[in-house]
Automatic annotation (TrEMBL):
GO terms for biological process: mitochondrial respiratory chain complex IV assembly. It comes from Denticeps clupeoides. One of its GO terms (cellular component) is mitochondrial intermembrane space. Residues 1-20 are annotated as: Disordered. This is Cytochrome c oxidase assembly protein COX19.
């Protein structure tokens, strides 16, 4: 009597993760941004909160070159680093 399990009955279909998996930068298109970000991390004892601008620029480079899916930077946690559209940043205090 064989008690071996038969795993062939179920078909497994791998699904890529929603975020976090993207093509490697084989041609080094964003290498300068990556190096700047990594240098910042080393100089700040790997405190990533001090390197957010470099992180934003690196991710923007990857999106611009289709090395990752386009995503609004606000949704990636950079809302506070985004420039306000011209005209909306005017003062509302009358003088």
């Amino acid at each position: 009597m064989s008690t071996a399990m038969n795993f062939g009955n179920k078909s497994f279909r791998p699904r890529p993760p929603d975020k976090g998996s993207f093509p490697l930068d084989h041609f080094g298109e964003c290498r300068a941004f990556q190096e700047t970000f990594m240098r910042c991390l080393r100089e700040s004892s790997f405190d990533s909160s001090r390197c957010r601008l470099q992180s934003k620029e690196y991710l923007q480079c990857r999106m611009d070159r289709q090395l990752m899916a386009k995503e609004p930077l606000e949704k990636l946690g950079f809302k506070d680093l985004m420039e306000e559209p011209k005209g909306e940043a005017q003062e509302t205090n009358p003088r």
